[in-house]
Amino acid sequence: MSGTWAMVWPHGLVVAMLGYLLGSVSGSLVLGRLQSVDIRAMGSGNAGGTNALRTQGWPFALGVVAIDIGKGALAAGVAPFIVTLVFGATTAWLTLATIAGLAAILGHIWPLYFGFRGGKGAGTAVGAVAVIAPSCIGPMFLVWLVTVLVTGYVGLATIFAGVVLIPTVWWLGPHPLPPALAGFAIAVAVVIVLTHRGNIQRLIEGNENRFDTQKLWRRRDRSS
Fold first, then answer.
1. Domain end (from 94, 116, 132)
2. Which residue among 90, 106, 132 closes a domain?
3. At what angle do helices 49-56 and 27-34 cross, to 10 degrees?
4. Residue 46 is inside which H or E element, if any?
5. Each residue of 84-99: pLDDT tens digit?
6. Domains in the chain: how many in total?
7. pTM for the full model?
8. What are the φ and ψ backbone dihedral angles of 203, each rounded to 5 degrees?
9. Would you say 132 and 101 are in contact if contact means Cβ atoms under 8 Å apart?
10. Range of the domain at 143
């Protein structure tokens, strides 16, 4: 075991750095600069997809989500590959991928290029999970979608989706479950809950923003 970690940790430092730098490329802030807007000064003040949708509309928000998910996937998939090419073959790809994915999430939350004020990490987490544990994406999305449709609370849906990653990875992941994958699932869930603590507080106080899901149902009824 000590030999394995001795091999992983220097490579882990490199993938963590690469993952963090990729994660720091915030979709909403990059696209915002192209349009001379900073959504951190609008709406909820968060540099994420939900606030982008509320303040800038669907096209902008879709671009934000695509960038944020993409960088999580790139970090988890490409950073270990680069390290393998530069430093030689390693059998610890999963461990390196989880390190890079978590670093990208932290980079999104505290982006180097944007004054360490970013988003909440959910989109980037989805990209990382899609590479590291793709079988978990379906259940996570289902939980998120059902929660949004039933309650209208996107923040609550995101929290539930993050937390459900833990039992899902135990259920659908490889057996025995690799420690790196278990640690990744727990870390992602904890980070998502912590970054959404403001949403939790607003839910408790009864003033959390919500989408009008009744409009969605009425549109569906009229089109059917």
1. 132
2. 132
3. 30
4. none
5. 777 765 668 889 999 9
6. 2
7. 0.87
8. -65, -40
9. yes
10. 133-224
